[in-house]
Structures are given as structure tokens and as C-alpha cells.
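[Automated response] Your request has been received and processed.

Submitted sequence:
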Amino acid sequence: MPARQKFLKSEQRESSLISNIVNRLALANHDISFKYYNNDKKSLMTFASKDIKDTIRAVYGKSVYDNIISFEKHSDIASVHGYIGNSEISRGSRNNQSIFVNKRYIKSGLITSAVENAFKSFLTINKFPFFVLFLEIYPELVDVNVHPTKSEIKFQDERTIYKIVFEGVHEALANSMRNSFEIDASDVLTYETYSTPLVQVPIDLKEETFSTLYQSDKDSLKLSEMYPKRLNIHDDLRRKDASVDDKAPKSISRFDNKVENNEDTKANEPKFPQLNIIGQFNNTYILAQGLDVFYMIDQHAAHEKILFERFKKQIEDREVISQVLMTPVIIELSSDDYVYYTENMQIFKESGFLVETFGDNTLSIREAPMLLGKVSAKEFFLEILDNIKSMGSGKITEVKYSMIASLACKAAIKANHQLTGREMAVLIDDLRYINEPFNCPHGRPTIIKMSLMDIEKRFKRIQ
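Generated structure:
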């Protein structure tokens, strides 16, 4: 009907939606064989099996199959079982999560929250676990009429459901990783903490300090052309005048080549006064003074924003340099992921990837962007793909923003990292001249300031 037809997307996108439905049907009925052909091309084939793990391999591939563990838990009113993936196959979106209640595919914030909270002790921040979960429950304890498409349901006893899911997943993970991890009982979330789904911290402050970008003399030459101003803080300092005294740090003037042919005069102007460095607090916050104002600068957030604006400009100007990988990276995608890739190949090309088809739903990455030197090409590729799936292929600006913010966060110096006086001065001097220095890409402030009047009021020197 015309009214329905206008809502149809591209043939590839509609095909992806159909593939997704067939995949869920196959997972829910692993004792039945499925054959799915798309335009006379085999897209999925499963064989009847007593173990759903065999169907998971057919749907998601060998990489997922090799990195999942089983879990199960039973109570008087319900039982839960399934498979959950380890951190190796965790992704930046929840697209690889499947929940089945009495063999019917549904979406449930309650169950998703229970699984992810159980996984928090074992998962990298900003990642979501893979899982296929089956919940069997008495039908009279479930209300299926809370959504027009019946894709969402409501449980009569949500607390019990949350508890059984949380404990089943957490116990399986703890048993699997006990040899590698020492779990502190005080850090483990329990079901009593549940009220609303927890929000993950957007920035990991415990990550190791960043390393230099130099990989070889050849790469260094490319990077020097790509970064006429700085590779990182430590490299900058090697080119600085060695006569600067670390013990008495002072503000350092900008290099003559700070402005990289930027026609926007806004980038030529400092956004806050030149500061005198006082010191560093807790190896995380830089303390500085400007006129009669006291400044505290979050070193991670500040460096993150500097890198973010630099990377953003390089991608916008299509100045990204690609690096030929010594060994191509092979990625096996699900049918759904492969469709998203084929519809958005230009984004990957503009981001510095050279990708070739390597078989059905399999890609070979031959070149990767050299924005950050040693970055996992596979991880970076999948992050872009997850951003596209979460935001939609039509929002290219938002996809790139999230991708660049993630890169900048990983490359920036971290909290609990001691800086010398010269390093602090260079970092602040860089921050003064970027377009938007006062917030990091995630919205956190980079600088907090207090006037002399504010301080004296706190000490009751003035009223």
C-alpha cells in the first residue's frame, strides 16, 4: 500500500531487517534447521542441534563461538539460561544482545540492566556484552500487552527476575575468570542496588598512559607532515629550549607553526589568559594562576579536547594518512553488520581505511588510519560500525564526532600521570588556542576557576 511503501528504506536496509528477524527465529528454535537466501545468495544456514551454541556459531561466526560461556539459574517461578560473551567480543552498542521470554524475542531494560550490571566487574568501560538469554516463566506472571508490537513485556515480580538474571550471569563470569581475576566482594554489585539502570562512566581514568606515535623512521616522516605542530607532549618538550627550569615552571609561548594554515581567525586567538603554573594536584589536576584568578585544569579532559579538535580537522579536510598494515586484519561480520558496512563504505574510506571483500560477510583491512599510531584496526573499525548502527547512516557528522571523541579519549594523557612543569605549560598553551577549550567532547569541564574574591569569601576574610 502507498501509505506503507513510503516508509520503506533501501533494499539493502530492508534486507538487513529481514535477516535480523530470521537470525532471531533461528536462535529461538535451534532444534530446527534454517536456510535463508537473499537474491539467490545463501545468507544463513543452520542445522538442527540440541545446543544453541551451534546456532550461535552459524549466525555470528567462529570468533563469537570461541568467546562465549554458558550460564543458567533457576527459581520457583522462572529459570534463565544462555550464553554471554567475554570482553573480546564486547561492542560499543547493544545490537548483539538477544532476549527470549518463553521463546519469543523481546526487549527488556530490566533484563539488559541485570546482565550489564553483572558484567561490570569484568568489562571495559563504554562496552556492552554479547549475550543470548532465554527466560522461561509462567505465562500468567507476564503482561505482553504493554507495547503495540508486543516487543516489550512487563513482569509481575521484577525484583525476582532481576535477581535471577544477575546472579546467573555473574556466577558464570566469576567461575570462568577466577583464575585470571581476583574479585573484591566490596566491588561486586548486588541485586539490592537495582532501582534504575546504571549509567556507565564516559571516560576511563585508569587507562595506561599514552605512548609515542613514532613507529619507524618512515612513519615518523609521514607523521611530521601530518602533525606540523605536535605529535604529543613529550615530543614537543624535546624540541623545547632545554634551559627552561622544571622546578620553576613558567608559561611558554606558542610555537610559530601553531596555526596550521587555518583560515578561521578564531583559532588564532587565545580563549583565556596566559597562565603561570603553580603545580600539579594528585597527578591529575594542573594548578595555575592568571591575574587574580585561580585555575584547576583536568589534564586528561584538556588533552582529550586538543586531540579531538586536531583529529576532527584532519578528517574534515581529508588529510588523514593511512598506514599499510604488515598483516591484513580479517573481520567476519554478521549479515546485519555487513549490510551496514556496504551502505556506508564511504565513511570508512574517508576515515582512512582500505577494505577489501574477503568472502561472504568477511572483510580484509589492508590499510588503517594513522591518527593515533598504534591503534587496533579491528577495534577502531567496529567502533565506527557501532556508531553508524546506533545513530543511523544519515547522521554522518554525529558518527564521526563519536568516533573522533573515542580516539581522542584513548590517546590523551590519563589521570594519575605525573607531568613536568614544561609538559603542563605546553598542554595549557595548546588548550588556549583551540576553538572550544572549556569542555571535553563528552561535555565535562576542562577548566574550573575561582576568583580571589571567591577564595577570600571562603576563608571569611571578606563578607
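Summary generated for your ticket: The chain is about 35% helix and 20% strand. The radius of gyration is 26 Å.
If you did not submit this request, please reply to this message.
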